[in-house]
């Protein structure tokens, strides 16, 4: 068996020494299992008793490491013991070898020992009765049952309990491992969700602040600077409010701060007006009815992030937002010009987290998402007549009956 010990277990060494010393004490006290005048005693004297005793004690060293070998040698020693005056300790140690062979041996060996010992017990009961026709003949079957079958059956019961305990331990470890995996996945999913919410709720305000503050610092025009400062203040106040609501969601119950309701597509008008106030030329076109709340939230966030990206990166021109509901799906598409040269101020840097968040939102609802140039570098020209069009497309499946 893999991983089996090569050296005897220390408990087996103790058992072997105890058996040998106990047998020597009984031998020294003259306590043999058969009298010296018995006809079956073929060897004269008491010294031959020590040979099977010593061999059986040595087999005890193999009871865990090589249980089959120990049982075979022990059986031969027990057979030898029957032609001497005999030692009770030799018989007792043999019963332990049977027990160990069933408990520590391979499953096939355990079953084989149990079947053989049971068969010997039955034969030892039936054959003597059939031959001798005496009730005393039953003692042979009883002795065989006590010496061979009983320790084997005991080892089988203990082995089953041990295997059941090991299986229960493994199931407990697997359950704990699965629970830990679920916990890690839940924490990761929650962190990703909060990252998306934080990005979507605050990034558009911070992007507007960054762009207009840069414009206010770079343009020597009091009116333009005043207008930029007004936009900066408006976005900073709204961003702070969004941040407070997000903190309320994290705390779950923050006393005076209640978590904000999830935005819906009814708020797209206000979202587009806010983008226009930040300087975007936005056209909104939508044809849809009531949708499931998760779809409305995801679609709203897709449009919000797309407008934020257009504010930061788009070339001058019109940004179109369209939402079209089909039989079992909602199509969201946001197109913005790109590739031209901006002449209305600097752009804000981007990290790419917005596209990752949009893709994750769509994947959670088993939809499809793509973002990239539309029509190639020279196709799909924007209003400015230069560059191309950047398109963000998302499709959300709608199961029948969910739109009510």
Task: Break the fold down into its secondary structure elements and pairings.
Blueprint: H1 10-28, H2 50-59, H3 67-81, H4 88-104, H5 107-132, H6 138-218, H7 222-251, H8 268-277, E1 281-287, H9 293-313, E2 318-325, E3 329-338, H10 353-364, E4 368-374, E5 388-397
Structure description:
With 404 residues, the protein is of the alpha+beta class. It has 2 domains: 10-175, no CATH class; 265-404, Histidine kinase-like ATPase, C-terminal domain (Heat Shock Protein 90), CATH 3.30.565. It is built from 10 helices and 5 strands, in the order ααααααααβαββαββ. It has helices at residues 10-28, 50-59, 67-81, 88-104, 107-132, 138-218, 222-251, 268-277, 293-313, 353-364, and strands spanning 281-287, 318-325, 329-338, 368-374, 388-397. Strands 1-2-3-5-4 form a 5-stranded mixed β-sheet, covered by helices on one side. A hairpin with a 3-residue loop joins strand 2 (318-325) and strand 3 (329-338). Helix 6 (138-218) packs across helix 10. The longest helix has 81 residues, at 138-218. The protein is rod-shaped.
Name the features:
single chain; 404 residues; alpha+beta; Heat Shock Protein 90; five-stranded mixed beta sheet; 60% helix; 10% strand
The first-to-last residue Cα distance is: 64 Å
User: Average pLDDT, to the nearest integer?
Assistant: 81
Give the total of domains.
2
What's the shape?
rod-shaped
How many helical elements?
10
In percent, how much strand structure appears in the residues?
5-15%
Side by side, the strands of the main sheet go: 1-2-3-5-4
Major sheet: size, sense and barrel closure?
5 strands, mixed
| CA-based gyration radius | 44 Å
Class from secondary-structure proportions = alpha+beta
pLDDT under 50 segments (min length 5)? Answer: 254-259, 341-346, 376-385
> What proportion of the residues is helical, as a percent range?
55-70%
């Amino acid at each position: 068996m893999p991983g089996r010990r090569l050296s005897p277990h220390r408990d087996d060494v103790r058992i072997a020494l105890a058996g040998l010393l106990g047998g020597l004490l009984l031998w020294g006290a003259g306590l043999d299992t058969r009298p010296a005048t018995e006809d079956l005693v073929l060897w004269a004297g008491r010294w031959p008793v020590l040979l099977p005793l010593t061999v059986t004690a040595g087999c005890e060293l193999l009871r865990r490491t090589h249980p089959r070998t120990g049982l075979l040698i022990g059986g031969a020693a027990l057979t030898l013991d029957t032609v001497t005056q005999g030692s009770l300790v030799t018989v007792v140690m043999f019963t332990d070898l049977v027990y160990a062979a069933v408990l520590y041996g391979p499953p096939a060996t355990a079953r084989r020992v149990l079947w053989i010992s049971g068969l010997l017990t039955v034969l030892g009961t039936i054959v003597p009765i059939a031959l001798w026709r005496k009730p005393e003949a039953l003692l042979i079957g009883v002795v065989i049952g006590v010496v061979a079958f009983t320790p084997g059956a005991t080892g089988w019961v203990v082995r089953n309990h041990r295997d059941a305990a090991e299986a229960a331990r493994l199931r407990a470890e697997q359950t704990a491992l699965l629970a830990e995996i679920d916990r890690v996945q839940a924490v990761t999913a929650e962190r990703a969700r909060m990252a998306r919410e934080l990005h979507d709720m605050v990034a558009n305000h911070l992007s507007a602040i960054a762009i207009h503050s840069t414009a206010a610092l770079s343009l020597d025009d009091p009116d333009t600077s005043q207008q930029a400062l007004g936009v900066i203040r408006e976005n900073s106040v709204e961003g702070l409010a969004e941040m407070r609501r997000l903190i309320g969601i994290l705390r779950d119950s923050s006393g005076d701060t209640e978590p904000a309701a999830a935005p819906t597509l009814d708020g797209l008008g206000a979202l587009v007006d806010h983008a226009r106030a930040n300087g975007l030329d936005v056209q909104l076109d939508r044809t849809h009815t009531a949708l499931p709340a998760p779809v409305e939230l995801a679609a709203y966030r897709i449009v919000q992030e797309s407008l934020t990206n257009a504010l930061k990166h788009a070339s001058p021109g019109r940004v179109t937002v369209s939402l079209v509901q089909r039989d079992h799906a909602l199509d969201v598409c946001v197109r913005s010009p790109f590739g031209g040269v901006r002449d209305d101020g600097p752009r804000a840097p981007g990290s790419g987290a917005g596209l990752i968040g949009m893709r994750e939102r769509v994947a959670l609802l088993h939809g499809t998402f793509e973002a990239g140039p539309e029509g190639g570098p020279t196709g799909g020209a924007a209003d400015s007549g230069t560059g191309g069009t950047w398109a963000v497309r998302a499709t959300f499946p709608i199961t029948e009956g969910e739109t009510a």
